[in-house]
Amino acid sequence: MNEEIIKARDQALAQARKQLNISNYRVERFFDRMLQDEKEIIFALAQVNQMDQVNPGKKPKYLRDFTREGIRKIAKAYQKIRKISNRLPQCISINEFYLIDEEVNYANRNY
């Protein structure tokens, strides 16, 4: 694709998002579409409180409901989740967490 085609495509996408009342920014779009229980996990990890909200009496629903400090805390929480997630084995199952090697003696570890 040449630059003109890419620019025209991006402008068309931006216009379509505006008509659908959707943010042009991918992080804001992602956050705003998250399920509320997923957001609650992020809020807990981020340790956001009412002081981090634009309107402290209102339950936050969108990223724009937070102050810059609240958004910074949420961004850091996302980074933590991503870091942990990247370290997990792929296709991990719940049953694998029940597999405990009873022969391992953690008292004898050198690290």
TrEMBL record:
Query: What's the protein here called?
Result: Uncharacterized protein
Question: Which branch of life, at top level?
Answer: Bacteria
Q: Which organism is it from?
A: Pasteurella multocida
